[in-house]
Amino acid sequence: MTAEIPATIDDTAALLKDGRYVADRSLATALYLALKMGRPLFLEGEAGVGKTEIGKVLSETLGRRLIRLQCYEGLDVSSAVYEWNYSLQMIDIRISEAAGDRDREQIEHDIFSERFLIKRPLLQALEPDVNGKAPVLLIDELDRTDEPFEAFLLEVLSDFQVTIPEIGTVKAKEPPIVIITSNRTREIHDAIKRRCFYYWVDYPDAKRELEILSIKAPGADTQLSQQVVAFVQKLRSTDLFKVPGVAETIDWTNALVQLDKIDLDPQTVNDTLGVLLKYQDDIEKVKGSEAANLLQQVKADLAGRRG
Ligand SMILES: Nc1ncnc2c1ncn2[C@@H]1O[C@H](COP(=O)(O)OP(=O)(O)OP(=O)(O)O)[C@@H](O)[C@H]1O
Ligand SMILES: [Mg+2]
How many domains does the chain have? Predict the structure, then answer.
């Protein structure tokens, strides 16, 4: 199934919702414009706030192939764009030699043809999928690569074409939908950002986080979800090494459901903190009196709102 590019901001929000993603108006606007104007969307934000998920959901809801380029230090052209299949080339040479049916020039010509080319994500992204639609290209965690790769990427993103010396230039008929994510462990070069629309994915407010839980942890009691969200929101304003992302909120809620909880109590919070916080120092800091304190505030706030 393929869907059309959304025609309005509301349609864009609805499309994400179809993919079980709750976006606020500003994100839907950024995405709408990026899709409409054919520009890459550059998403930056803390860990676990839902950056990668946007690429996945877009591919799913638009019915387009997802091509994911996971970035890491030392990522090079042969892993990102293409490389020659040396072993297959060797076999072909051996077979030809044995058969003696082709001269050297012919063999050289043959082994540098598409059949011997291993296409990596950036090259794959220039080709339409079986429906004839351009794919979604998710360039994930770009901040993990190094600058030479960024410079190369810049070229690809400018023209949506790649030159293979032995074959020629491959150009996308229709540019892919490009989503780039970064955790901001370093700044990405301005030249890349200039080609993209930029959006900072922030932690959701309580209302949106509750909505996310209603989709991603539907088995949770409403009261429990409210407590979880209020607790996590408070935790995010605490001085921690790494505050919980949305992923952790979802995990925690699902963990509490597994424990048949419908109401948070200090003991349960202490026992399950490892689902929410991933650094021992943070856990030590929150465990015990801090957790009890936060929980008391959460319950008082929620009771106040009800009363
Ligand atoms: N707005 C949202 N609506 C629905 N689910 C969300 C939302 N935000 C985050 N999630 C969920 O949270 C989890 C983490 O999201 P994701 O992996 O996209 O985060 P990320 O920002 O890419 O994190 P990292 O930087 O660690 O890669 C996913 O399971 C995703 O479904
Ligand atoms: Mg991610």
Answer: 3
136-140 vs 177-182, strand pairing mode: parallel
Whether 187 and 286 share a structural domain: no
Same domain, 132 and 214: no
Residue 306 has pLDDT above 80, yes or no: no
* Ligand 2 centroid from CA 52, angstroms: 4
20 domain-assigned: yes
Judged by DSSP in three states, 164 sits in strand
> What span, in angstroms and rounded, lies between the C-alpha atoms of 130 and 133?
7
Pair of tokens at residue 14: 């609805």
The CATH number covering residue 160 comes to: 3.40.50.300
Residue indicated by tokens 């349960």? 268
The residue whose CA has the least distance to atom 25 of ligand 1 is 47
d(CA 130, CA 26): 33
Q: How confident is the model at residue 1 (pLDDT cuts 50, 70, 90)?
A: low
CB distance 210 to ligand 1 below 6 Å? no
Domain range for 268: 206-306
Work out the angle at residue 159's Cα, subtended by the Cα atoms of residues 154 and 162, and round it to the nearest 5 degrees. Answer: 80
- Would you give the distance in Å from CA 218 to the centre of its chain? 23
The pLDDT score that the predictor gives to residue 302 is: 93
- Please tell me if the CB atom of residue 49 comes closer than 6 angstroms to any atom of ligand 1: yes
pLDDT in tens, 279-288: 999 999 999 9
pLDDT by residue (tens digit) across 22-64?
Answer: 999 999 999 999 999 999 999 999 999 999 999 999 999 999 9
DSSP state of 259: T
Distance (Å) of CA 267 to CA 63, 173, 273, 296: 45, 59, 10, 13
Residue 4 belongs to a domain: no
pTM of the model: 0.93
What three-state secondary structure class fits 39? coil
